[in-house]
Amino acid sequence: MKKILFIFILFPAFMLGQAPLKGVVYEDDGQGNDVPLPGANVYWLGTKIGDVTDFDGVFELEYSPSYTKLVISYVGYQTDTLHINTNRRIKHRLKATNELDEVVVAQRKQASKASYLAAQNIVNISSAELLKAACCNLSESFETNPSIDVNFSDAVSGTRQIKMLGLTSPYILIATENIPAIRGAAQAYGLSFTPGTWVESIQITKGAGSVVNGFESITGQINVEQQKPSMDYPVFVNAYASASGRYELNTHLNTPVSDRWQTGLYLHGNTRSQKFDRNDDGFLDVPLAKQINVMNRWQYTDSENGFVGFFNVRYLYDDKQAGQEGFDPDLHKGSTDFWGSGIETQRLDISAKVGYVNPEVPYQSLGFQVAYSNHKQDSYFGLTDYDITHNSVYANLIYNTIIGDSRHKVKTGLSATYDGYEEAVQFTDFSRVERSVGAFFEYAYDDLENLNLTAGLRVDTHNLLGTFITPRLHMRYTPWENAALRASFGRGKRAANIFTENQKLFASSRSWDIRDAGGAIYGLDPEIAWNYGGGFLQGFYIAGRKAEVNVDFYRTSFKNQVVVDWEDPQRVSFYNLDGDSYANSFQLELGYELFPRFDIKTAYKNYKIETDYTSGKKSAPLVPEHRYFANAAYETEVSPKGSQWKFDATFNWLGKQRFPDTSSSPETFRLGEYTPTVSTLNAQVTKVFSPSFEVYLGGENLTNTKQNSPIVNAENPFAPYFDTTMVYGPIFGTMYYAGLRYKL
C-alpha cells in the first residue's frame, strides 16, 4: 500500500505537461450570487483559438506561455480582457452593460433535477450532488436522492445494495456511459468498484428504459458518466479517512497529448485494516478490505470532421475479509476453529466508443460501442467455496437520422453479447455460455411544444432464452406551463444468476435447493416482467421562490420469476413462479428553495410487493412498506477569493419490515414478525477555501441507530440456524469521516 501511495503522490509532477486552460464564466443573478453563463465567447487575443461556454459556463482553450491576453465577451455584458501568465483554472464574472431594476431573472442550477422535456422519467444527478456526502463509491452515490433506495449492508460483506421501484439491482440496467457494466458476476459487489470521484454525473430512468441498451432492463436504468480528460482538472486529489478504519486516496491526472488526443490516469486505493466489534457478538462489524483501482482514459476529438472517441482500460483488485474477530485465513480457512469469509476479485475492463456526426448533414450520426471484461472472483463463506469467472463481450452499433424533419427522429442498429461463465459452488460446476444477437428500432416524436414520445422495438435471439420481442413506449405531455405528465410501459427479460445475486445467503447454515423445472439456466426458466406506470411533475413558485412537486406510480408485473424463497430458516429454495408476483411503487416528492441558497427536498415512498410462494402469498422480506426521506442543503455566498461554506443533512425513516418466517426455529432463534422502525441522520460540512482546495467533515447515522444482534446464533456459526442475513438497520452505529479535495 505504501508503494501505491507513493505513486499517487509522485505522479502529478510527471503528468502536468502543457495542460489546456479551463475555466468558468459567471454572471450576477442580482442578489450577489454567481450563476453560470452559457454561450459566452472566450478567445486568445490576436488568434483564432477560442471556445464557447457550455450549459455550465465551462470553457477550455489550448494554452501556451505565448498567449497572455484572454478575451471574454457576451451580448449585453461588458467585454473583459484578462492577463494570463499560467494555465491555472480561472473563474470570472461578467458585468451587465445596463441594469434593469424593474425585472431580475435569476436561476441557480440544481444539483439534482428531474427532466421536464424528456419522454422518459429521468432524474439527472450532477457532481455537485455527489459532493453532498462522502460518496466513496457508486453504491454510496444515491444517499441524497430519493429515487434510489440504498439498503443497509449485510452482516458479513459490508456491501450496500440498491433498489429501484422496490426491486433489487439485478432488475436495473446499470451502464457506464451507456455500455451495460454491472451485470453477471459483478451484480453483488460491482457498485463498490466505481470510485465516487470518477463519476461526473448520473442519469436515473424510471421504467423499462430504451431498447437501444438491451432487453434486460425491467424497473429502470442507471447511466454513469465518468470524468472526461478534456473537462477534468489536470490534477485532482481526494483523501478520505473514517472512524470505521477506512482510508482512501484518489488521484486524477489529465493532460493533452496533441490537438486531438487527451488522456487521463485515474488512481484509486482504499484500505481498512482495523478490527471493530462494537456489539460484542464476536464478529467484525465491518470487513477488513483493500482495493486497487486504476483506469486510463483516452479521448479523441476531431470536430472539423465529426469524429469523437473514448478508449478505456481499467484494472481492479479487491479483497475483503470478514467473519469472527479471531479468524486468520492463513490458519483457520477450511476449519471449524473460527468462522470466516474471504472475497477476492480481480477485474479487467477494456472499452471503446466511437461516434461520427456528418458535418454536412448534422442529424445523421453513427456510433459504435464495444466492451470486454474479465471478472474473476474467488470466495469462501465458512466451509462453502464459491468461485466464478465471467468473460463478457458487448458490441452495439447505432445509427441516428430523421424522417422528413427534426420532429421525427429514429435510432436503429444491431447489438451482440457474449457471456462465458465458469461457476462452481463447492465441487458442483454450473458453467455455461450465453450468446445473443439483436436488432432494434426506436422512433421519437417531438412536436416542439407539448408532446413527445419514444417508441421502441427490438428482436433478439439468444442461445438459451430463444428468440423474443421487446417493446417499450414512453410519452410526455405538457398540459400547461411548467408541467410534465408521463406514461410508459415496457417488457424486460433476463436470466437470473441465482448464486452471484444472492451471495449473502452463503453466510448462513441454510442448504440450497434448486427445483429443476427443465429450464436452460440452473434448470430454471428466464424471468419476464412488464413494467408500466407514469408520473406528474409540476414546477411553481411559493413566495417568489421555486418549488417542485413530483408524483409517480409504477407497477412491475412478473409473467415469470425465479423466486428466492428463504422462508425456511434452514433452507433457501429457487423455483419458477407459479401464480402471481408484482411490485407496486408510489413516490411523492417535494422540493423547495426556502430562502436563497437553502434547498429542501422531501419524499414519501410506499411499496406493496407480493409473491406467491409455495407456502402462500407473502410480502417481500426486509422491504419497508413506508419510507420517508428529507434532505436540506445550504451554501453561503462565494467570497471574492472563492471561499464558501456548504452544509448538507439527510434524514431517512423506514417503516417496519417483515422478517422471513422463523416460526420453525427453536424459540431462542425465533425473530418477531416485523422489525422495528429505523431512523438515520447523515450530515456533512464543507469548507471551500479557494477554487483549488476544500475540506469536508461528516457523520453517518448520527442518531446512532444500531441493530444490536444482527447475527442469529453467532455463538455457534457452524451449527444449524446460524444466519447473518437478517439485517434491517445499521450495525456499526455513528461513523464520522473527514476528507480533502485539491484541484490544480
Automatic annotation (TrEMBL):
One GO biological process term: siderophore transmembrane transport
Membrane topology: Multi-pass membrane protein
Signal peptide: 1-19
Pfam family, one: CarbopepD_reg_2
Name of the protein in question: TonB-dependent receptor
Residue ranges occupied by any TonB-dependent receptor plug domain in the UniProt entry: 119-220
Keywords: Cell outer membrane, Membrane, Receptor, Signal, Transmembrane, Transmembrane beta strand, Transport
PROSITE patterns: TONB_DEPENDENT_REC_3 (PS52016)
Family: Belongs to the TonB-dependent receptor family.
Gene3D superfamilies for this protein: TonB-dependent receptor, beta-barrel domain, TonB-dependent receptor, plug domain
Alphabetical list of InterPro entries matching this protein: Beta-barrel_TonB_sf, CarboxyPept-like_regulatory, Plug_dom, Plug_dom_sf, TonB-dep_rcpt-like
Matching PANTHER family: HEMOGLOBIN AND HEMOGLOBIN-HAPTOGLOBIN-BINDING PROTEIN 1-RELATED (PTHR30069:SF29), TONB-DEPENDENT OUTER MEMBRANE RECEPTOR (PTHR30069)
Subcellular location(s) per record: Cell outer membrane
Top-level taxonomic group: Bacteria
Coiled-coil boundaries: none
Entry GO terms, CC: cell outer membrane
